[in-house]
Design goal:
By secondary structure, the chain is mainly α. It has 24 helices and two strands. α1 packs across α16, α5 packs across α7 and α7 runs antiparallel to α10. The N and C termini lie far apart (60 Å).
């Protein structure tokens, strides 16, 4: 008697691919389409291009787009001009306290951008410490930080570490023999750095520049605080959505669509150019930092530590301001220190910290699970569906957070998924926004592992799911942990994504700082910022202790 033919067991990862694709269709594609629909249809349900016509026929809005593009391009170029020599010096020459320098440079990037703007106002505002001090000592009125120059300075200092981190990772893939060959042909020093090594780093420069451009182009807090009327696209979107003049969600959606088109265009152009210039490098002989003569060594340390001081100055000012005495939220003249700002805001601080850890912690747990699944199916199960899924995971990373916030608000404010104002929508928004950090770090390690390890486990009777949990995940632990810590740091400092989604019950530290700065409660803002900075630096120190250290920060 012939036995019945047994049906093959369903592949658990085929199901995972289907569910992950559906998940991203709901939380990424659907909100993006909702924004598009809102921009093209009136409240009466008729098709209309009125909102787009209003944008392109009004000088104010077209100028705002030009301003945002100018900020994005300007900050990108300035950040590259500063970051490339800095990474060169840190790689080629011996710098004392190199590990600590890298942690502190990264700390200056991880704080919310508006904290930097707020700090520079305290220093170089119309009544800033430096402005007043110079005026009293010399009688000279130095220019304030307000306006386009101030925006460029603040955002450049904020985003230099982003390109710097990419470049530090790329420099480690350059073989010493390349430098020696260039030197034997008479190319040394600065000429070698720009004529020989720079072309090898083009893909890295493009990747870092993309992220700097998107962040600068879409930054909301810095232009709002120090722009002094310098109109930008995020400012226009916020004004249209919140009704500062008159609420117009259709127009806010149209502005969001224009921003999405700009950022995705830059993203795909960057991918195309990178693919045309991509190549693999493996440093069989990594570059060994060398000690310079006394004068050269002094110059390198002055440049590195000089930049570090300037980049950390805003953070130091914030910490000091947290301890300064205030009356009605404003600082008392002179340096009078007290703990009153912390004690007066103790209830709020407790609530903000609790919300930050609960909402951020849940987002991180979900993020890690999704990242492991997506990384595995994209690397081990390559097919057209999973390639699309891999691209979709990057969309929330490239699209500005303010736009994602509006998309979520429009999509999830009504049935069947009415979640706006809940902790759940905050968790989802933060999770998808910062998911790429863990996906990329996990994917990088998974790509280096041989599939034979999994095959061996399965040949011994382990199921595919058990193999993933018991064999693959432990092997990927360094990449998962490093990506998770970096995701955590960016989650707790995120502002723009949640600006339209929170309530007073779900305010995090970043949202609390923003609210106190807007209300003019400068001492409280300083106290909250100090707490956030302590958490951020502690997280970065933990990241540097993980296997791979700062190498894991290349995203």
């Amino acid at each position: 008697m012939k036995g019945r033919s047994r049906l093959p067991k369903p592949d658990v990862f085929v199901g995972a691919s289907v569910w992950m694709s559906l998940f991203y269709l709901v939380i990424v594609v659907w909100p993006m389409l909702t924004v598009l629909r809102k921009s093209l249809w009136t409240t009466a349900g008729t098709f209309s291009l009125t909102s787009f016509a209003k944008f392109f026929t009004t000088k104010l809005y077209v100028t705002s787009l030009g301003h945002s593009l100018l900020i994005g391009v300007g900050v990108t170029l300035l950040a590259l001009i500063v970051a490339y020599p800095l990474a060169y010096m840190m790689t080629m020459y011996r710098v004392r306290g190199k590990g600590a320098v890298q942690v502190l440079i990264l700390a200056s990037m991880m704080s919310p951008p508006f904290i930097g703007a707020y700090s520079w106002i305290l220093l170089l505002g119309s009544n800033g410490l430096v402005t007043q001090g110079v005026r009293r000592l010399t009688g000279i009125a130095i220019p304030s930080i307000y306006g386009l120059p101030g925006i460029l300075v603040v955002l450049t200092l904020q985003l230099v570490p982003l390109i710097f981190t990419y470049l530090m990772g790329a420099w480690r893939t350059v073989d010493q023999s390349i430098l020696e060959a260039a030197e034997s042909l008479g190319s040394t020093g600065v000429r070698r750095a720009f004529r020989v090594v720079a072309p090898l780093l083009i893909p890295t420069v493009l990747a870092g520049s993309l992220l700097v451009f998107v962040r600068a182009f879409a930054d909301f807090g810095t232009p709002m605080l120090i722009g002094k009327g310098y109109q930008t696209m995020p400012y226009q979107i916020y004004g249209a959505a919140t009704g500062e003049v008159s609420q117009n969600m259709s127009f806010a959606a149209a502005l969001s669509v224009i921003v999405i088109v700009v950022t995705l265009t830059v993203f795909f152009v960057q991918k195309y150019v990178s693919s045309r210039n991509s190549f693999a490098m493996t440093a069989m002989r990594p570059i060994e930092p060398r000690r310079l003569p006394r004068l050269g060594n002094a110059v390198v340390h002055i440049v590195v530590y000089g930049y570090l001081f300037v980049s950390l100055l805003p953070l130091l000012v914030v910490i000091v301001s947290g301890f300064r005495k205030t009356i009605m939220g404003q600082f008392v003249p002179g340096l009078h220190f007290t703990m009153a700002n912390f004690t007066a805001a103790s209830r709020d601080i407790e609530k903000y910290i609790r919300n930050t850890f609960v909402i951020g912690g849940v987002a991180l747990i979900v993020l890690v699970v999704v990242a492991v699944i997506v990384s595995y199916i994209c690397v081990r199960r390559p097919n057209p569906v999973n390639k699309v899924l891999d691209t979709l995971t990057m969309v929330p990373y490239v699209v500005p957070g303010l736009v994602i916030g509006i998309a979520f608000m429009l999509t999830f404010s009504t049935a069947p998924l009415a979640m706006t104002g809940t902790a759940a929508i905050m968790v989802i928004a933060l999770m998808i926004r910062r998911l790429p950090y863990t996906i990329r770090s996990t994917t990088a390690l998974l790509g280096q592992q041989s599939p034979s390890i999994e095959e061996a486990a399965q040949s011994l009777g382990a199921s595919k799911l058990k193999t993933l949990v018991r064999v693959i995940v432990p092997a990927l632990a360094p990449g998962i942990f490093s990506g998770a810590v970096l995701s955590w740091v960016t989650i707790i400092t995120e502002l723009s994504t949640t600006l339209f989604l929170y309530t007073t019950k779900t305010q995090t530290l970043s949202l609390g700082i923003y609210a106190t700065v807007v209300r003019g409660q400068l001492g409280t803002a300083g106290a909250l910022s100090t707490v956030l900075l302590v958490i951020t630096i502690a997280s970065l120190v933990l990241l540097m202790k993980l296997p791979g250290g700062s190498d894991n920060l290349k995203m």
